[in-house]
Amino acid sequence: MRIDAQIVVIGGGISGLSLISELTRRRSTGHRIILVEAESTLAHHTSSRSAQHLSPAYGPPPVRELTERTVAQLAKGLEDLEEPVIWPCPTVVVGSKAQLAAESTFYSTRISRDAVIELCPELSPMHPEALVGGLFEDDAVRLDASSLLEWHRRIATEAGVQILTDAPVTAATYDDDAWEITAGSNELRSPLVVNAAGAWADEVSQLFGAEPLGLQPLRRTAALVSLEQPLAADHPVVVTADGGWYYRADPVGALISSGEAEPQDPCDSQPHPGQMQALVEEINAVTSLRITEIVRSWTGQRTAAPDGVPVCGFDPELAGFLWLAGQSGYGFQTSTALARAAADLLLEDLIGTWCSVETAQALSPTRFHQR
């Protein structure tokens, strides 16, 4: 049986879910919006493996603008939710003089080595040349990712959006002003399609006849670890300026992560054998954090566009095919603003004046067709 829709969204991660909830609020209904997800559960890959930390200082200028707008919106709270989904979580970037100079941004305040150690006493063993000081970001926030994902899903489905799981897209043709799509056992027809397929976005695009954009999945691994002495709940997130590792407080003890950005084909990525143990030994060697056990580890894929800026816009060579991909490590922190931009394009055919002209242009996939 064929299902007729007005908009089909491919991908059930934070991008797809935030878009369908935005669309339902804008249209006052989710009727004839369908989201298809290849896996049996939503947010199975990258979105369920987030570090849940949003930093306005992270990323190129378009990402920073989108982050500011997303954090500002989330800070207002979400309807029907009593608990906030974000809360303050300062960040300290530490490193050598040259490293800190390269990382300094408008959002950061330079602080001395003594000030860093006052905030994070466990860093006192670091060599003075490796830790000359830090960059303090007081507007970074922690995120309750699972609550946000569930809120988007609930808002959309209660408004009538249909979500189909176990529905990988395997074929697509354009006929009579609409796309005919095979997704699992479902046959769909819609004039508008959104490619929010994350690491698989380039592969999905080829089923529609689009030219791939060169999106590259990059693996990054994290772990929950136990400590001899727990960190305070409000302990700053600590990030090395060279991107080697970072950690933050967690009820288990701490979350630690390597700074890897290893290219990889789209897959259900898993940690390399011994990878987290090596990171534990490295952190224990230069700090007094005293990690005692790896409780759980996982690997996610951040999918980046060639220029490091997310892609949000209609494909210039395909009718009704909108890209919403390439968010790299900025998926959650840009999600609300990118959903708004995508909804603008789908409903109004342009991004509204709430977003700068420069950022709107930077997001467009046409930039890859002008080379």
From TrEMBL:
Query: Which UniProt keywords are present, listed alphabetically?
Result: Oxidoreductase
Fetch the InterPro entries from UniProt.
FAD-dep_OxRdtase, FAD/NAD-bd_sf
One function term, GO molecular function aspect:
oxidoreductase activity
Task: Please give the Pfam families that the UniProt record associates with this protein.
Answer: DAO (PF01266)
Q: Which domain of life does the protein's organism represent?
A: Bacteria
SUPFAM superfamilies the UniProt entry points to: FAD/NAD(P)-binding domain
The signal peptide, as residue positions, is none
Domain FAD dependent oxidoreductase intervals: 7-345
Any one of the GO CC terms: cytoplasm
Q: What is this protein called?
A: FAD-binding oxidoreductase
